[in-house]
Amino acid sequence: MGIMVEKDDQRSQLGERITADLRERVQRTSSDEGDAIEDSAMLEGTQKSSRAGWFWITLVVLALISLGIIFFVK
Question: What span, in angstroms and rounded, lies between the C-alpha atoms of 26 and 37?
Fold first, then answer.
């Protein structure tokens, strides 16, 4: 986001008001969304999974596929 600098006083005041309004909206929405997601009743009893979980699941699936190929193709 950039601020336009102009010689006209009215336009610069308008730009400052718009910029202040946008900053206020960003702060309000960022704080509202973060709290609503973290405090949601739907998330009760759950925990965050790590990215390594998908890695291990993929390894197990590949191992099962390779065992199937080894025993059933031979």
Answer: 17
Q: Is the distance from CB of 13 to CB of 5 less than 8 angstroms?
A: no
End-to-end CA distance of the chain: 64
Read off the tokens for 19. Answer: 């910029």
- Summarize pLDDT for 16-61 with one digit per residue, the tens: 888 889 888 888 877 655 555 566 677 677 777 777 888 889 999 9
Closest CA to 47 of 59, 34, 56, 38: 38
Q: Rounded distance, CA 65 to CA 56, Å?
A: 14
Give the side-chain half-sphere CA count within 13 A for 43: 9
pTM of structure: 0.34
Helices (H), the chain: 9-38, 52-73
